[in-house]
Amino acid sequence: MLKLEDARRIIGAAELKAAEIGQPMNIAVADSGGNLIAHVRMDGAWIGSIDISIKKAYTSRAFDISTKDLAGESQSGGQFFGIHASNDGRIMIFAGGIPLKQDGQVVGAIGVSGGSGEQDHAVAEAGAAAL
């Protein structure tokens, strides 16, 4: 089970990576039910990315897959084409969401938004590694 102190550590590591690459980000951590534990909007991060970061965390937990991988499977002709229209629009199908695992079990997820897909994913990976 993720605790607030875990979420803060994950967000802290993600913030360091975002600062390293020079891109302010919105960073969200969700629990095993996909519910928000904590969120940070770094100074200068886009306001429109707040919602996206939270939804990326939800998506990663809801399907236990990175949003980067889900994006590849949700394109026209893919097995999950149209999935973004499910769950009342809460599904994000671009990079930046990663499930968080402890002892092989998914215990939550991180969602990052504010840069390119590659930047969002790299920042999310840095946060996930802190768990």
Automatic annotation (TrEMBL):
This is Heme-binding protein. It holds the Pfam family HbpS-like. InterPro entries: GlcG_carb_metab_protein, PduO/GlcC-like, PduO/GlcC-like_sf. It comes from Deinococcus oregonensis.
